[in-house]
Amino acid sequence: MLTKVNKLSTYTSNKHSTCLISAVSLAIASMCISQSALANGMPKTNTFWWPEQLNLQPLRQNDAKSNPLGGDFNYAEAFKTLNLANVKSDIKALLTSSQDWWPADYGHYGPFFVRMAWHSTGTYRMSDGRGGGAGGQQRFEPLNSWPDNVSLDKARRLLWPIKQKYGRSLSWADLMVLTGNVAMESMGFTIYGFAGGREDDFEPDLVYWGPEKEWLGGNERYSGERKLEEPLAAVQMGLIYVNPEGPNGNHDPISAAADIRDVFARMAMNDEETVALIAGGHTFGKAHGAHKPDECLEPAPAGAAIEEQGLGWKNKCGKGNAEDTITSGLEGAWSVSPTQWTMQYLDNLFGFEWVKTQSPAGATQWIPKDGAGANLVPDAHVKSKRHAPIMFTTDLALKEDPNYRKIAERFHANPKEFELAFSKAWFKLTHRDMGPRARYVGDESPTDDFLWQDPIPTVDYSLIDDRDIKNLKKKLLEGGYFRLSIGGNCLGSCRQFQSDRYARWCERSAYSTRATKGLGS
Amino acid sequence: MRGGANGARIQLAPQKDWEVNNPDELNKVLTYLNKVKKDFDDGQSGDKQVSLADLIVLGGAAAIEQAASKNDFDIEVPFVPGRSDATQAQTEVKSFEVLEPKADGFRNYYAQGNTLSPVEMLVDKANTLDLSVPEMSVLVAGLRVMNTNADGSDRGVLTDNPGSLNNDFFVNLLDMSTRWEKAKDKEDLYLGIDRKSNKQRWRASSVDLIFGSNSELRAVAEVYASDDAHQQFVEDFVNAWTKVMTLDRFDLQ
């Protein structure tokens, strides 16, 4: 009877411990979606009987009734009451307070939190504006239980004491990004800036993540010569970007480069930003693939037993954490000092010749040829152990693809340029989905305009008054273009508003809404 | 719409004999409340009376105010008199039998023979009470720390001070220094164990643990467990409580 409790969550797959989730290559990931049989007593939706019926659910999301903070809560005002310096110093102290239930690699949670922040915002895609960090959606299914987000449940749980302390004044969405920033600062990197203002949701977003009905499935979204379906911006169901082992795990850096270019472009990143993000990001931390996931990992959070309290992927091999951790299935670090900002990633990428090898989990990755650098990288937990540095197939794309290589070599020769490029790209990655600067809150946001913010000049002249408006209305109607004006210009200018979150924000500007309705009636 | 406190049918068949109402205890409480009613009514010179139905609801209000005052929250639970007491002759026993709860997650009650799980039955119950997700959550948490389980057990009473109204349920549920495990050979019982000392701290049901396990309910639990939410917890509890207490007050709508 009690095994049914998981049905309460909106995501019911992987209920059975035999189903396994991991981002490791498709070959070893045995996936399953249990089309959850509805128990007797559970109501069926109309779409169960009539799938062709129009679904109006998207228009009923985020009802104020489901928000414990109530409809009148103003997050931006609450955020302004924070002393950001105090928050940051609390986060900084947490970075090196290793917890026994999830020990920090190299005694520093920084790289782990960078991954959390990256994955929270990295779901953003330009073509429909969905995904992204706002809403704190990583807390909810499906993202919470995505194969690409393995272990990030633990990252957020580590942050709970900070969230609890600052309550409603600091949303999860802002906290995740801010923590990524503080982590990088504490590792010696200069951050470009931080803006708050990402209000938390209290239910999952409805987002089209792809046609496949299988985790890490990725064939249906492609047609012709590897043409990815719009509006998607990831190569497989449940991944945020690309398969680290190359397209469909083919271990080919050149075709990996093509996938990377396609997917990053859909997230608004050009080649330079892409190289900066990959090289910068992989300067920190390590990948985890200590054991075979299908032999060790239990279901994702949404399918985990109730006593796991929302934590998933329980690992029954070895200690189940620390040096036995399984995340992507790839194993190792790219640099010798993974908790410091260094040039070692690019040094190693260009300094070694790389050959294929297998991680303990069975994923294909690369190490220096002829055993070079075998004792270079310290183990994240075991003092006596050292390892060779590693590269993913997607890392080698930066070396093998001619255009990526040109940029990577320039960065390698100009560390300052690399750091600035990474800090700007990181700022864009973590703020792009917020839209215009008008939405930024807090005193740490950069004052310069970026084109991707769609800047609008400040009004530095007197505005029209009621009399002008009356006269102008008359004038506008005199032209006889009444209907054209509604369809073509007025409504059109509002209709470009992208994503439901944008739309909600647009609706709040009562003036434009009323103007549209007024002219139409 | 049926049911509710109005009519005080809890003192009549079939409600007085329902397992969920704990008949022995109910009997004692009703005896006392009827005495209060009689003393009050007898003491009036005019035609003033208090109904048992109003006294039952007023008793809840008084208990909540007292439980809140233990945390220095000075609140007044809204109360509007006007319920009256039905007679057995006005009560068709067969027709009322369908209202018997097979489960009541608000009081950690779950009878044999259910098709749905305890947590599904909680949601079903909350739905029939017209509650939102936060209202359901705050009611469960408040009722637990006030020690109101149907069987008087300590399942989900996640507080060191049972009987006082505060957000302890959520704070302790989300505390990472506790890990949870399923109790052996016991239906729907989980044990909260101190990660360091390995000593047992709490006992809980699946209805309790779902607020830490389900990602949406956990998000609500986090709001109420935060340092800035103590006052809000009490206020929201009282609002949700009052909503339930007045669902059948069509005279007020």
Number of strands of chain A: 8
* Poorly predicted residue ranges of chain A: 1-36, 500-521
Identify low-pLDDT runs of chain B: none
Main pleated-sheet profile of chain A = 2 strands, antiparallel
Extended strand count of chain B: 5
Please give a structural write-up.
The complex is a heterodimer of chains A (about 525) and B (about 250). In chain A, strand 5 and strand 6 form a beta hairpin. By secondary structure, chain A is mostly helical. Chain A has a two-stranded antiparallel ribbon. Chain A has a two-stranded antiparallel ribbon with strand order 3-4. Chain A contains 17 helices and eight strands. Chain A starts with about 45 loop residues before the first helix and ends with a helix. The radius of gyration of chain A is 24 Å and the shape is globular. Chain A is about 35% helix and about 5% strand. Chain B is built from nine helices and five strands. In chain B, helix 7 packs across helix 8. The model of chain B has no long low-confidence stretch (mean pLDDT about 95). Chain B is mainly alpha-helical and about 250 residues long.
In short:
Chain A has 521 residues and is mostly helical. Chain A has 17 helices and eight strands. Chain A has helices spanning 46-49, 75-80, 84-95, 110-121, 152-166, 172-186, 253-266, 271-281, 293-296, 344-351, 393-400, 402-413, 415-431, 466-478, 482-495, 499-508, 510-520; strands at 222-223, 227-228, 286-287, 332-333, 354-358, 364-368, 377-378, 386-387.
Layout of secondary structure:
The complex is a heterodimer of chains A (521) and B (253).
Chain A: H1 46-49, H2 75-80, H3 84-95, H4 110-121, H5 152-166, H6 172-186, E1 222-223, E2 227-228, H7 253-266, H8 271-281, E3 286-287, H9 293-296, E4 332-333, H10 344-351, E5 354-358, E6 364-368, E7 377-378, E8 386-387, H11 393-400, H12 402-413, H13 415-431, H14 466-478, H15 482-495, H16 499-508, H17 510-520
Antiparallel strand pairs in A: 1-2, 3-4, 5-6, 7-8
Chain B: H1 23-42, H2 52-69, H3 93-97, E1 103-104, E2 109-110, H4 118-128, H5 133-145, H6 168-173, E3 178-182, E4 190-194, E5 200-204, H7 206-213, H8 215-225, H9 230-245
Antiparallel strand pairs in B: 1-2, 3-4, 4-5
Helix pairs in contact in B: 5-8, 5-9, 7-8
